[in-house]
Amino acid sequence: MIRALAFALLFAVSGVSAQTLPSWNEGKAKSAIVAFVKTVTDKKSKDYVAPAERIAVFDNDGTLWSEQPLYFQLAFALDRVKVLAPQHPEWKTQEPFAALLRGDLKTALAGGEKALLEIVMATHAGTTTEEFEKVVRDWISTAKHPKTGRRYIEMVYQPMIDLLRYLRANGFKTYIVSGGGIEFMRPWVEQVYGIPPEQVVGSTIKTKFEMRDGKPTIARLPELDFIDDKEGKPVAINRFIGRRPLLAFGNSDGDLQMLQWTAAGSGLRLMGIVHHDDARREFAYDRESHVGRLDKALDEAKARNWIVVSMKSDWKRVFPFER
Amino acid sequence: MIRALAFALLFAVSGVSAQTLPSWNEGKAKSAIVAFVKTVTDKKSKDYVAPAERIAVFDNDGTLWSEQPLYFQLAFALDRVKVLAPQHPEWKTQEPFAALLRGDLKTALAGGEKALLEIVMATHAGTTTEEFEKVVRDWISTAKHPKTGRRYIEMVYQPMIDLLRYLRANGFKTYIVSGGGIEFMRPWVEQVYGIPPEQVVGSTIKTKFEMRDGKPTIARLPELDFIDDKEGKPVAINRFIGRRPLLAFGNSDGDLQMLQWTAAGSGLRLMGIVHHDDARREFAYDRESHVGRLDKALDEAKARNWIVVSMKSDWKRVFPFER
User: Fold this and answer.
1) Chain B residues closer than 8 Å to A218 by CB
2) Interface contact A239-B204, CB threshold 8 A
3) In chain A, which residues have pLDDT < 50?
4) Which residue from A118, B103, B108, B191 lies 20 to 30 Å from A62 (Cα-Cα)?
5) Closest Cα to residue B275, out of B313, B304, B308, B305?
6) How far is the CA of B228 from the CAs of A267, B68, B177, B218, in angstroms?
């Protein structure tokens, strides 16, 4: 009898509140998310939305996983330069590769966008899609973050994983809409976020279908196809999904247009920004940062009452590996 | 008692066979499809495929709906030229529009690809995505086929709708991968085929996100972005879906590379071609046709034992409106 009572009490205590978004602290952000989801899934509400229309989009870098001290995909590219160097003796004297191989990142990146593009093309093109997938899988399962020593896929935000799960449990279809490369994300996001490859939207290089020894292959070409950032995000959402999102989360000015596009839909919508204000558990940066600058979008979020998530106060923990 | 027996008999007769693909005649094509689906969904089979990997792709023109005497999207464009003519007095003397407005399709299309592109751009660009969606909805709900007098959305193949349903009931995710325009298809394919907008892959023109009077819009620009035909189909499948299909259906040489890409996957795959050999109920054409030419793909299908569906003998009925 007493055990039954204890069990009942335990059940009551660990009820809705603890089950819903368990890594979030009680507060304005969590309440707003839960209230929104309850409303749009309530058939009696005037803001009810049918399951098919429940599209939720998430930026990746800085929104679902970390992006400091440099975009993780750039870390991948830099590691890849080292792996490929023996096949490219000319890199010993050719910038930006020469500087990179000396370990001088600053000089290498001083060439700006042109240098960056050269690094990306040298490391992301020239393979088939299947070969590239294997390269990404190998890297992501072994490479480690320079500050935490953790594998990059461990540096994902547990509260955002909670949110993705909570939304899916409420009939939402969750998408990534990222400036990162589609084929850099697809090999691991299903396992880590529960987001399948067909729900990943991102930047692309051109590819070409061709027969190689009678075998159909898709070759990755050293040419940009589409940059899924800023104005590109609503364009890609329209192209890939063809529905306006009901909910959008980002963390930087690169996400502003996606948030605006979402907000301009009819009825209730939820727009959220992850604010990096936790130097102790993660990183603290916003208006002055080179990576993930959050300036205009922060002003607009405040002016329009979008949710601004404080990593410091809204999140019980940041990473899955924290106790 | 007799009624119960009659009911039981009726139930037995109308059992599996009649319920599965009801508009298909018993025969090689239907048997091959059913055997394939049973195998890949059977957990005990060595060819079992998890539901997440059950991607099925379908061409649209000539595979899910008719494409004669001209692609229905071209019929839309021609109607649209007439609607827009009052806003374009210059068209009275400017080809290919002048010929079109005189009703002389042959002269208008004599300009080949260039003329066609001009017609498409004049009729598909220059609006926002929302305006264009409304234009398509209005047209598709009223315009009628020149030969049958039926609305175009009635000229869909009932056996293919059966097949889409059967696949979805078996855990497949069904996609359209068409040379047609994504935004020409999305407004009506969900209602007609049960395929949601986010599972439509097609050709695109460029679009641009911009603020108009403070309202975010996506403008459709008169510039080609991507032609989802031939080599473009596997490229688009890779870009949009990121998984290799388990099953692919087409009807013309424009689908050959999609079928080859599907066939080159590991394990069991199903490749099918709809062969237009029924002049009485639909149209009969293949190697010599300008629209939907089926030549190389027919040879390859026969050589590789892909399913070639005879509309004449494999389909109990073609259109939903038939008795």
Assistant:
1) 234-235, 238, 261
2) yes
3) 1, 7-15
4) A118
5) B308
6) 34, 20, 8, 21
